[in-house]
Structure formats: C-alpha cells, structure tokens
Amino acid sequence: MTRTWDIFCSVVDNFGDIGVCWRLARQLSSELGQSVRLWVDDVASFQRICHAADPARASQRVGGVEIRRWGVPFPRVALADVVIEGFGARLPDAYLEAMAAQLPHPVWINLEYLSAESWVEGCHGLPSPHPGLPLVKHFFFPGFTAATGGLLMESGLAQARDAFQRDPAAQAAFWRSLGLAPADGDALCVSLFCYDNAALPALVEAWRAGATPIVCVVPEGTALAQLSRIAGHAIAPGTNVNLGCLTVRAIPFLELEQYDRLLWACDFNFVRGEDSFVRAQLAARPLVWQAYPQQKDAHLQKLSAFLERYAAGLDADTRAVICAFTEGWNRASADIGRHWPAMRSRRDALAAHARNWAGNLAAGGNLAIKLAKFCADRLK
Ligand code: TRH
C-alpha cells in the first residue's frame, strides 16, 4: 500500500546523514512504491553526492523523490503517514504540534546510527513517549543481525557489483570516466576516504618505501588535504603525484553511484563514518574502517564490536592482522606503517573473507523493507 513519508535530514558536518537519508528515500520510492518527501537543511551538500539536485530550488523532484529545502520558518504542509527523523534531527515545532493534533497520529521514527554493539538488539524498535505531547516515537536501529533494522541495500546491488567486477572493460570505462588509466596489473589499488588521521603520514611512508607499487585514489576532501600537506604541495583533483612506490591519484568528489564503482574497482578501501563503511562491505572488497571520532573515545567500542563480528570468520593470523591494523588506524598510531606489509601479504585471505561477509550481510535484513513493514504494522 502506498503511504506518504516525510524524512527529515539535518546535515551536521559531513555527508553520511544525507547519504543514508537519500538512499532510504530513493529505495522507499523506487522499490517499495512509497510517496516520499525528503526535507534537507543543506541542499548544497546533497548536491555533492547527487548532482541532479539544484541548491537554488526550495522544492524539486529527483529520482521519484520530492526534495524540499528544510528552512525556517517551516511551511504549512499536509502531514505524512510516516515521519522519519534522521539521526535525531529535531522536527520543526509546528510540524510536531500538527502531528499531535492529527488522528490517527503519524508513525514517528528516529532512524539511529549503525552499530555492531549487542545492546542495539535490545533497543531496536523501542517506543519513547513524548514528554508533553500525545505522541510516541520509535527507535529504529540499523544493524548486522536479524533482531536489528538491518542495512540499506537496494535490490540488484550484488548483481550489478558482480557484473562490474567480472568485466575489465566496464572497469576500464569507469577509470576513463575519471580521466584515469587502469592501474598497472601488479599495482595494488587503494581508495582513501578518512578523517584527518595522525597515522596517515606513517602509512604514506610505508607505501612510498614499499616493495610493490601502490595506487591510492583519493576523492577531494579531508584525506586529499592531508595528503597535500604530507606531499608538501597542493594536490589538485585530476592530478597524479608520485612518491616513491606510491602514486596518488586525486579525483573529484564522486556522486554516490560513482563512489560505489570506485569501491568495487579497488583492492582495498579505506572508509569512514557509516555510509561509506556499509558500502565498502557491500563492495565485497577488503576494507579499513575509521569510525567517526566521538567524545571519550566511544567510537573505539563501536570499532571493537564491529571487528569482533567481522573478523570472527578469519583464521587467527589474518584476524590478528586486520584487527591490529584497523585499531592502529583508529588510534592514530604512528606505528601503522609497521602493520602494512602484513595487511598487504594477507590480501587474498582478506579478499575471500570480504566476499563471504558481503554475501552474508543480507541475513540481518533489508532496512527499507523492514522499516516499511514496521511502520505498516503501526498504521493498521
Ligand atoms: O561523511 P561521513 O563522515 O559521515 C559521518 C557519519 O555518517 C557519522 O556517523 C555522522 O555522525 C557524521 O557524518 C555527521 O562518512 P560516511 O557516513 O561514510 O558518509 C559519506 C557519504 O559520502 C557516503 O554516502 C558516501 C558519500 N561519498 C560520495 O558520494 N562520493 C565520494 O567521493 C565520497 C568519498 C563519499
């Protein structure tokens, strides 16, 4: 049954929140036939991941979704059947009051951040009554097990990925679309998307002085700015820089679909936050995750919980290698370069594991489908 949905997204400082909200909006609309309106307070950031969006327009349709600029004052609009606040984005007061006045009340969901921690299973789906209004919000947690909300995965994704990864011509066409030649056969191709990381200079040094060539493809942003500082000069998107065995290929920030292809095309992907982290897992290639840094190092707990799940299926030696490297990366270890050769030499085991892991991700469920069912049950 077609329902109306309002998804509210506040772009804090990065791209993860809008990346997730946009993916969800698109899938609800294109695959589940829902009528979706996405309210975003920063359409310019949205345009970076979706070029069809026009920041100058307060209202537009993109890919079947109505995109509305979320400004102040908030306009009077018809309420949706389902209201999603992305990651605790605070709903406009007028909208909230209208929700309380309307019967039946819309279903109200807070879409939470992803975590592999076990407490998520106990909190997924819990109700939270509003302190002053006759409204109940439900917490919907993405996650890796059937007792959570699952992960965002559009249908046909694995088939599209496999077709691309089997097709050297499609990969060459992708590299050409970025103005690049495919990396030489014996070079290891790595994509780099990270927060400012004090471990990066040591890793670059290990790559530079390594025994085998490495091509590091870096979209414009924090990582490229840090690499520029390490190189001692600005590295512009569209240019290459050679540092010993390392070639840095700077590229523009890509649209979501292109970024997926980059993840599919590389041998190792360094990713961060939430959405690139999930996409790298779905890319079925080895990954190194940098968790979004939180106060009191809370992110390190998230990291351990993920590594515990992710590395469980690996042999003991490879498990030790991926855990040591990823922990070093997240703890900004100046010693990270020492761990790289082991990662490099475990490439085949890590690649086989990444394929298995990607194949098993569906076991936790498809987030858009689970969310639609969760809401439909409450709208009955
Ligand atoms: O941008 P992020 O650091 O987002 C973070 C996290 O979501 C974090 O949980 C949140 O609290 C914080 O923002 C405010 O990393 P993330 O989650 O990987 O999102 C990046 C998005 O950008 C993702 O949707 C992929 C997309 N992307 C592109 O579309 N093109 C690119 O070239 C790159 C590098 C990324």
Walkthrough of the structure:
- The strands form two sheets. An eight-stranded mixed sheet has the order 3-4-2-1-5-6-8-7, with helices on one face.
- It has helices at 16-30, 43-49, 93-101, 119-123, 157-166, 168-177, 200-208, 222-231, 256-265, 275-282, 298-310, 316-330, 336-345, 347-360, 367-379; strands at residues 4-9, 35-40, 59-62, 65-69, 82-86, 107-111, 127-129, 136-140, 188-192, 214-219, 240-243, 246-251, 268-272, 287-290.
- It has 380 residues and is an alpha/beta fold.
- The N and C termini lie close together (11 Å).
- The chain folds into two domains: 4-152 and 365-378, Rossmann fold, CATH 3.40.50; 157-361, Glycogen Phosphorylase B (Rossmann fold, 3-Layer(aba) Sandwich), CATH 3.40.50.
- The model has no long low-confidence stretch (mean pLDDT 97).
- A hairpin with a 2-residue loop joins β11 and β12.
- Bound molecules: 2'-deoxy-thymidine-beta-L-rhamnose.
- 2'-deoxy-thymidine-beta-L-rhamnose is lined by residues 12-17, 19, 49, 113, 193, 219, 253-256, 259, 272-277, 292.
Number of strands: 14
Ligands in the model, by name, code or SMILES, are: 2'-deoxy-thymidine-beta-L-rhamnose
CATH class of the largest domain: Alpha Beta
Approximate strand percentage: 15-25%
SSE map:
Blueprint: E1 4-9, H1 16-30, E2 35-40, H2 43-49, E3 59-62, E4 65-69, E5 82-86, H3 93-101, E6 107-111, H4 119-123, E7 127-129, E8 136-140, H5 157-166, H6 168-177, E9 188-192, H7 200-208, E10 214-219, H8 222-231, E11 240-243, E12 246-251, H9 256-265, E13 268-272, H10 275-282, E14 287-290, H11 298-310, H12 316-330, H13 336-345, H14 347-360, H15 367-379
Parallel strand pairs: 1-2, 1-5, 2-4, 5-6, 6-8, 9-10, 9-13, 10-12, 13-14
Antiparallel strand pairs: 3-4, 7-8, 11-12
Helix pairs in contact: 7-13, 11-12, 12-13
The protein binds 2'-deoxy-thymidine-beta-L-rhamnose (TRH).
